[in-house]
Amino acid sequence: MPFESGAPLETQTAPSDEIIPQAEALVYADKKIRRRRRRILGAEALLLATTTALGSYALDVNINMERQASAEASVSVYDKPLDSNNDSSAVVFFNGFGTYDADPIAKVFGPGIKQNLDGESWSVSYGNAPLNPKKLAEKIISLAEERDITTLDFVGYSAGGAISTETATEIADNPDITIRSLTPISTPDGIDGLRPLRQKEVEFAYTLSSIPGAKYSTLVRLIGEIYFMRDRFDEGPFTTRIADFGKTALQAAGHIQQPKLPGTWLLVDQTLAVADADIQSNLKEIAEKYKGKKPLPTILYVGTEEPGYDYMVNNELSSYKICGYAYENNMQCSIYNVPGAVHTMPEKTTDAYTETFADAKQELDEGIGIAQLNFAAQLREALVKKMPNVEPADASETDN
After folding, report:
1. Dist. CA 175–CA 290, nearest whole Å
2. Which of 24, 203, 236, 268 has the most beta carbons within 10 angstroms of its beta carbon?
């Protein structure tokens, strides 16, 4: 029998061998129940946390989707012509990846470009709307009609070069507007025109676009911002890197609160605009639409040279191929490189860009002149076919 309270110690008996296992079993069962309760509580907490996180994610995604749906691209006048007599033309600026509008490059490139191609300066704003070259073309045509502009020169920086060329194909049908020139600056010829590491980032953009809601997530954007600033915390002792990471994360968090911040969805669109670019087909389409109607646009490709290095775009390959596409369609094309230019900071070499555009002036003028002569020859040949008594053009007039 068990020990009894109040009984003499010598008269008490020890528990039987059968009772001890029963007591141990009860203790084990009690522990098992407690563990089960903890697991249930843990699962409930995890479920609650997951539900809350998913709810927050869904809410954030929906808010940003509404932002995109209500956003609208626009084109605005950034600056007036250097010469007031050049009020029938405009230089249209398209910025590249990670940008909201083209004001920064209009400021950097405008003074140099307008030495060669004077007119109003226009800035294309993507405005966090879906990136749609056809819509951009409509905005540009509308502003041109409003301001009696008949001649346009397109300047596209990085991805903006691909976007501007595709937009040009949408405007090429308009009988009242002539695109006189296209100036892609550090523009990749599709995904092959990117450096290898940048090509991997394009693959990431494809992956991101396939995940429901991911490109509308603020958290994903924050992670992306930190990733692109990783050079700020990838050196030094571990404790230093941790501290630098914290500072970088705070900077990134502040950056994504800016009013003119391009949303992640726009970044994905801009990246895919490069990956899906078909500049060869764009130039061919423009040439076909302009044949016998307008002078073909002249191409000026501007890249980077030592001591600078473009770690994003393979300028050598891209400039060679883009000019090759131009020649295939009887367009004039020139290549000039800017010493010391840095892809992500063109403002650091504003003077060098201005000097390079000045160096390119004569060749650009000659290219535009040849395009006009070729067009005049086309008109003359067409007239000869209709009126056999008209003398054909002298061969020297159409000599490239």
Report:
1. 10
2. 268
Helix axes 218-228, 19-70, angle to 10 degrees: 80
Q: Do 46 and 128 fall within a single domain? A: no
CB 106 within 8 A of CB 55: no
Secondary structure letter of residue 232 according to DSSP: G
Partners of 296 in the beta sheet? Answer: none
- In a domain? residue 356: yes
Tokens 């407690």 label which residue? 34
Q: Please tell me the total count of domains within the chain.
A: 3
* Strand-pair category, 333-339 with 151-157: unpaired
Q: Is the peptide bond before 188 cis (omega within 30 degrees of 0)?
A: no
Distance CA 384, CA 386 (A): 5
Rounded to 5 degrees, φ, ψ at 84 are: -60, -15
Does 116 map to a domain? yes
CB atoms inside a 10 Å sphere around CB 241: 15
Q: DSSP readout, 135-161?
A: HHHHHHHHHHHHTT--EEEEEEETHHH
- Tokens representing residue 154 in the block: 């397109």
Per the DSSP assignment, residues forming a β-bridge with 335 are 301
Single-letter amino acid, residue 300: L
Which helix (H) or strand (E) segment holds residue 336: the answer is: strand 333-339
Instruction: Yes or no: say if 251 and 188 are a contact pair by the CB < 8 Å rule.
Output: no
Q: Could you list the residue range(s) of the whole structural domain that residue 98 is in?
A: 74-190+277-398
pTM of the entire structure? 0.78
121 and 152 in contact (C-beta within 8 Å)?
Answer: no
Q: Is residue 258 part of a domain?
A: yes
Beta bridge partners of 121: 79, 91
Give the model's pLDDT for residue 118: 94
> Given the DSSP bridges, would you call strands 178-185 and 151-157 parallel, antiparallel or unpaired?
parallel
Q: Compute the Cα dihedral for 272, 275, 279, 280 and give only its sign.
A: negative
Give the SS3 label for residue 256.
coil
Residues 56-115 have pLDDT tens digits of: 777 777 877 787 777 899 999 999 999 999 999 999 999 998 899 999 999 999 999 999
Cis status of the peptide bond prior to 297, with omega within 30 of 0 = no
| Same domain? 336 vs 393 | yes
Beta strands 333-339 and 178-185: pairing type?
A: unpaired
